[in-house]
Amino acid sequence: MELEIKNLTKKYGEITALNDFNIRMSNGIYGLLGPNGAGKSTLMNLLTDNVKRTSGKILYNNKEILSMGKDFRKLIGYMPQQQGYYEDLSARAFLLYMALLKGMKRREAKRKVDELLEIVNLTDSAHKKLGSFSGGMKQRALIAQALLNDPKILILDEPTAGLDPKERIRIRNFISEIAGSKIVILATHVVSDIEFIAKEVMLLKQGQLIACDTTDNLLNRIENMVCEVTVRDGEVEQFEKKYNVSNIFRNGDKVIARVVSDNLPAEFEKQIVRPNLEDLYLYFFGEN
Question: Cα–Cα distance between 263 and 224 in angstroms, integer?
């Protein structure tokens, strides 16, 4: 199974939301990172055929998805960042309704809904109204609806937003488990969600794909560009204005700042450390 995107571009008037995007994907998880306005939502809307592209091609197993029409949409599972739902419906009724909209037969829909309610830890709340759910519970229900039709291509926009750490780990592990038979595109600002499970990470900035590689290869790009610096209390504010600081913590009576930069501070005591994905994000998308 292969999904190939060739020279994909989307313009809104004079604004280019996505510019000449190219990638070839096979089974596995592809993390999608970028600041707000980078073009992540535009890319996902183009892949789900929710908006019309300006130019370029999207091929599924060498077939243009526009020519496949509904046959391609049947292969898609999509969880947008903000999705409407019926507050007066129970979680189970909502999922059954979504399953019928996707063309699933009633018996299969019931079986799949019960299976997914268990997976997303909502079995005990299956008959409660969605309007009474917490933000995290709603998020889990929306993840479940994206999986109803056992999609070949699963597109998740901020799937763990609002989840507590235990729930996030549960969902993250589940996504990792199913990714062997799917192409999963996971857009998130919680970089720890993809650091260890993504096959490759895409970095999107101002509508352009600026990098796409394995986490290890991307982190190797900023090897020796991350350090921990000892800073005096009164120097912290000015230090943050001058350098990209990914973390500040105390070690006894010392203040330690983690810095990501091509030019590490020479005037401070420092120790080079191994970069992580948060450092990478700050390196490419930080303000300083």
Answer: 10
Nearest to 276 by CA among 33, 25, 81, 28: 33
Kindly report, residue by residue over 188-207, the tens digit of the pLDDT: 988 888 988 999 999 999 99
The pTM for the full model equals 0.89
Report how far residue 235's alpha carbon sits from residue 41's, in angstroms, rounded to the nearest whole number: 39
| Average pLDDT of the segment spanning 203-230 | 94
135: exposed, middle or buried (C-beta count within 10 Å: 0-12, 13-18, 19+)? exposed
Q: Where does residue 20 rank: exposed (0-12), middle (13-18), buried (19+ CB within 10 A)?
A: middle
- For residue 161, pLDDT beyond 60: yes
Enter the tokens of residue 64: 């243009």
| Residue 38: per-residue pLDDT | 93
Q: How many CA atoms lie less than 13 Å away from 58 in the CB half-sphere? A: 23
For residues 132 and 176, give the distance between their C-alpha atoms in angstroms, rounded to a whole number. Answer: 29
Q: How many CB atoms lie within 10 A of CB 136?
A: 17
Partners of 90 in beta bridges: 129
Task: Give the contacts of 167 (CB within 8 A, at least 6 positions apart).
Answer: 121, 136, 140, 160
Which one-letter DSSP state was computed for residue 126? T
Average pLDDT, integer, range 236-248: 85
Find residue 232's DSSP bridge partners: none
d(Cα 91, Cα 140) in Å, to the nearest integer?
A: 10
